[in-house]
Amino acid sequence: MEKVYIYKKFERFWHWSQAALIFFLALTGFEIHDSFQLLGFEIAVAYHRIASYLLLGLIGLSIFWHFTTGEWKQYIPTISKLKAQIQYYTIGMFRNDPHPTIKSARKKLNPLQAMVYLGFKLVMAPIVILSGLLYMYFKTYDANDIIIISDIPLEYIAWAHTIGAFLLLSFIVIHVYMTTTGHTLTTNIKAMLTGWEILDKEDKSTSNSEVEPTKEKEK
Ligand code: HEM
Known about the structure:
Blueprint: E1 2-5, H1 9-32, H2 41-69, H3 82-90, H4 111-136, E2 139-141, E3 147-149, H5 154-179, H6 187-194, E4 196-199
Antiparallel strand pairs: 1-4, 2-3
């Protein structure tokens, strides 16, 4: 076992602020949806709009960070050991079997996580963001007084946005559950808070790394 600096400062900032913004967007969004009353409709709409701009800014920053650091390679999907990983989550972990893949700074995500997180980035988040932007600019005036109107009925846009919101929320429920499946219930959450995690020594035969080594010094 060794103590490894696995999540860099930006990564932790991005992870927790994205989580907070999505929770806040869900809270204000479902108030707009009339699921409950908390802030009042007008305030919920205004806050939802501000939080969505913040989320867009954060996503922009994180895309820049992932491409400039090469960390985007962590999300390259692979079917190698995917079956073993699914068997581990459905049967193995309840029998205390060892993890089929070894986590390291070079390979933070197991094959199932890489696939699910890629789905989050390429499918779930775009559904919510694109429908949200269409919703926002459905009928609005730009600076030159030109009306921007979407051809898609508002009802369909609202449906797509709400379905996207439910998909995101189900992702979060599963994601939070999965974070408890590390060495102890809180190992993974502590690692995302501090950056450090105690990991098994990396062994080239068990880690299915396709990612270039990253510098493991604290940034
Ligand atoms: C960049 C991201 C997002 C944008 C641009 C956006 C935009 C919007 C807009 C414009 C509305 C209509 C209210 C209004 O007039 O302002 C809305 C409603 C809503 N949003 Fe978002 N939103 C985003 C992200 C999210 C997220 C992450 C969630 C939840 C996880 C969410 C959940 C909802 C819900 C449930 C509604 C109510 C839908 C309805 O019943 O009509 N939104 N959003």
